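Following up on my earlier thread - several people asked me to post the actual chain instead of describing it. Fair enough. Here it is, all 233 residues.
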Amino acid sequence: MLIYTIIPARGGSKSIPRKNIRELNGSPLIKYSIDYSLHSKYVDRTIVSTDDKEIASIAVNYGAEVPFMRPSIYAEDLTQDFSVLNDAMLQCQEIYNEFADIFVLLRPTSPLRPAGLIEKSIDLLVKNPEASSVRAVTKSSQHPYRQWKSSDKYIESFVESHEGAMTEPYNLPRQILPDVYFQTGDIEVVRRETLLSGSVSGKKILPIIIESDQVLDIDNLADLKDANNRLKF
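Reply from S.P.:
Thanks for posting it. Predicted structure:
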């Protein structure tokens, strides 16, 4: 079984300029995801997908492979994960003349992952051959049944009421609400067959549940400061 880690790291970022190589506790942010992958006994190649020459150089210096430069069409603000992973899969097939079975997606913006996520996620996927992917999630503190969306000058329930189902779900007691989870950026693991079907996750997604106090996705400068503070202790 051949396993690739793909670390997406485009050069553009609106929230934090040059975010993927901003310094975190003395090292560029991307280094943490590269190190995490390189220390996994399961991963055969740690590949950074980037459109930026400086990021590519830094990634190689820390031990990652950058066998191709990502086309600019797949490095835009609204580029979706599938386009990035599918491009990486196709590029690597041609360059390495090999076909990875499993792809691990590690985002540089989640540098403080719990130990062993790669191994746990791959073991879970392999033990469940019907599953299409594995995704990190955490218990959501805000339930979608109690969320609202704008509708002209009014608001309406984010979760629609259906005939034969619960009515006014926003009025249900907290004790009977179903558990819901929020996806984190820590890890996604996907089968090659799932990507070939045109999806980065597929229909049968297994969860890796992470405690909320272990989750940190860096989207802004406050998150970066929080990460620096955590690493000091």
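The first helix runs from residue 29 to 38. That should answer part of your original question.
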